[in-house]
Structures are given as structure tokens and as C-alpha cells.
């Protein structure tokens, strides 16, 4: 399998790799699937995100990262909280769902 599940319920990658600065390839320690076309990933002690194709869309630099909600992600960086726009969220598709 591509992953296993640890005691906390996180997916632990076996095949999905990340090319860190300097081009070294390494594995993510945790992968968490969100509902909004995003996978939160943990590399060393930092969180980032992948799209559904496995492309890094948010570099793993955040101390904490919450689940994407309505296209926005709450993140903690160097002790301060902020909000990012989910680059994998389709706002137009969501708008169409809401008007039907």
C-alpha cells in the first residue's frame, strides 16, 4: 500500500515523496485528507498541503494547519495565526452548488 495508518489515525506515506530544498527526496510523515481537494501533509515538524494530483501547493512551513473550510485554511506560523486561501478549492463550482 501507499500508506499506513498510525495510532492517531493519520495516514503515513510510504511512496508519496517531497523534494525538499536542495532537491533531496523524502517522505511525508503524515497525510490528512480534507474535503476541499486538499491533503494536509507533515514534513519534519511542519505542515503544508498537496492537491489531489500530489503536487505541493502549500510548502510545509507552518507549525499548525487546520482543515480547509469554505476555501480558507487557518495556519500558525512562528507563533502567529493567519488565514490562507485554499489553492485547490474551486470557488466557482461551490457557487454553482449554492445557487441550485
What is the compact description of this entry?
The chain is mainly beta and 100 residues long.
Record keyword descriptors for this entry:
100 residues; mainly beta; four-stranded antiparallel beta sheet; three-stranded antiparallel beta sheet; globular
Overall description:
With 100 residues, the protein is mostly beta strands. The protein is 9% helix and 47% strand. It contains one helix and eleven strands. It has one helix at 91-99; strands at 3-5, 11-13, 17-19, 25-27, 30-33, 39-43, 46-50, 56-62, 64-65, 72-77, 80-85. Strands 5-6-7-8 form a four-stranded antiparallel β-sheet, with no helix packed on it. The protein has a three-stranded antiparallel β-sheet with strand order 9-10-11, with no helix packed on it. A two-stranded antiparallel ribbon has the order 1-2. Strand 3 and strand 4 form a beta hairpin. It is globular, with a radius of gyration of 14 Å. The N and C termini lie far apart (39 Å).
Instruction: Output the number of helix runs.
Output: 1
Major beta sheet, strand line-up: 5-6-7-8
Helical fraction: under 10%
How would a crystallographer describe the biggest sheet? 4 strands, antiparallel
Rg for CA atoms: 14 Å
- Let me know the number of strands: 11
The backbone outline, from C-alpha atoms, is: globular
Low-confidence stretches: none
**Average pLDDT rating:** 79
**Looking at the chains present, what oligomeric state does this protein adopt?**
single chain
**SSE order, one letter for each helix or strand:** EEEEEEEEEEEH
Percentage of residues in DSSP E strands: over 45%
The CA-CA distance between the termini, in Å, is 39 Å
Structural class: mainly beta
Amino acid at each position: 500500500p501507499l500508506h499506513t495508518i498510525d495510532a492517531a489515525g493519520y495516514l503515513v506515506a510510504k511512496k508519496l515523496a517531497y523534494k525538499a530544498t536542495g532537491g533531496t527526496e523524502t517522505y511525508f510523515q503524515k497525510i490528512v485528507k480534507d474535503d476541499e481537494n486538499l491533503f494536509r501533509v507533515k514534513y519534519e515538524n511542519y505542515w503544508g498541503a498537496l492537491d489531489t494530483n500530489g503536487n505541493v501547493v502549500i510548502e510545509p512551513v507552518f507549525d499548525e494547519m487546520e482543515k480547509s473550510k469554505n476555501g480558507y485554511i487557518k495556519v500558525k506560523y512562528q507563533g502567529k495565526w493567519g488565514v490562507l486561501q485554499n489553492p485547490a478549492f474551486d470557488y466557482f463550482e461551490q457557487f454553482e452548488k449554492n445557487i441550485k
